[in-house]
Amino acid sequence: MSDRRCLEKVDELCRDIIGVPDVPFGGLVVLASGDLRQTLPVVKRGSRAAVIAATIVSSHLWPLLTKHRLSDNMRVLRLRRDGDDQLAQQLQVYADWLLSVGDGTSGKILRIPPTMLLPPRNRNLGGLIRYVFGDLTADGAMIADRLMGRVIMTPLNKHAEEINHSVMKLLPTAGQICYSADSITDSPGFQDASVEFPIEWLNSLDIAGLPPHVLNLKIGAIVMLLRNMNRKQGLMNGTRLQITAIQPRVLRATLLTGAQRGTTVLLPRISLTPSDTNLPFDFTRRQFPVKIAWGITINKGQGQTYDVVGIFLPQPVFSHGQAYVAASRSGDPNKIAFLIEHDSLAEDEVKGEHTANVVYSEVFTRASR
C-alpha cells in the first residue's frame, strides 16, 4: 500500500472509531514523520507520475496538515566533538553536500568528493569489500561486534547477489547448502497446476521477498531476515544477523541490528508464500526465511544507520533519492566509499568520479503547497 493510501486509511479508521465523519482523523492529533529526499513508494512498473501520485504529498489530506521541517542531520551531529573546529567544519561541508544531493541542486550528474572514493589502485569490487569488511580471513575478523555496522549497498538485487557471492567465497568456513521444499496450492481454473508446472520449474523461481531454493550458508555469514517473526526478540523483516550454527531444521544466529543486537536467536524453516506474483496459482516455499546480506539494495538500506558503508554502482541509480539514501547512511564522510564502474555520463567528466542523481522535483513542489 502506498504512503498516500496508508494515511487516508488511518484517517478513515479514526473517523469511523471516533464517530466524527466530517473531521480529519476524527479530531485526534496524529503525528507523521518522513523525509521526501529519500526513496519514494515503489509502484510496480509505474511511471514517474504514478510514483509521485503514491506519495503522501498527493493526498487530499496534505493541505490540512501542519508541516514542521527539520534541517539538522543527526547522523552528522552525533559525531561532532566540542573544541574540534576542524572536524565540525568537515562534517558541516558533508551535511551541506548531502542536502544538495537530496534537493537536486547538485545537478543531474553528481561529482563524488575525493575523500569518498577508493584509491585508484583499489577501485574494484575486491577493493571495496576489503575497505568495508577488512580481511575476512584474519583472526577476529568474523566477530559480530566488528561486522554489525558494515554493509555494501547497490541499486539492484542482481548487483547485491554479485557482492554476496564474492564475499562468501572469501569466508574460510565450510559451506552448507540448504534446499527448499516448493509446492503448489491448486487455484480455480488450474486444478492440475502441480502436474503442469513441475517441481524443478518451481525450484528455478527467484521471487522478490522469498529466499532462494538453493541457500548456500556458512558459519559467520551475514544474512537478512525476510519476514516479521517476533517483534519482542527483534526478529523483523530487514533485521541483519550473523549465522553461528547451521542445523537441518534450525539456524542459530546473532542479531546485528536493533535494540536486541548481540543476542542469540533460533530461526526455523517456515512456509513462505509471495504476496505479489504473476503466477496463476498459490505457490509456497518452505525454507529458512533469510538471504545473504553482505550487500543489500539501496532501497532496503533506507532508514538504517551504519558505521562503514560501501556504495557499488555498476550502473547509475534510477529512482528518486537513491543517491541521497546511499550517501547518508553513515554520518562520517571518511567511512563511506563509492565504487563507480558505469560509463561516463558526460564528455567532460572523469570516469569513476561522477554518477547520476535522480530527483523528482515535483515532490518538493507539491510539499510546499
Largest sheet: 5 strands, antiparallel
Shape: globular
What is the assembly state of the chains in this entry?
Answer: single chain
Distance between the termini: 24 Å
Helix content: 25-40%
* Unreliably modeled segments: none
- Strand percentage: 15-25%
Number of helices in the DSSP assignment: 12
For the secondary structure, the number of strands is 16
What do these coordinates show?
The chain has helices spanning 3-18, 48-53, 74-77, 85-103, 125-133, 144-147, 157-170, 193-196, 199-203, 298-301, 322-327, 361-367, and strands spanning 109-111, 150-154, 175-179, 181-185, 214-218, 222-225, 240-246, 250-255, 264-268, 270-272, 282-287, 290-292, 295-297, 308-313, 336-340, 354-356. It has 369 residues and is of the alpha+beta class. The radius of gyration is 23 Å and the shape is globular. The mean pLDDT is 88.
